[in-house]
Amino acid sequence: MADRDGSAAQGRGSAAEREQERRRRRASFLRERDEARELRERVQPRRARAARLRQQMRMRTFRW
Question: Is residue 3 a part of any domain in this protein?
Answer without folding.
Answer: no
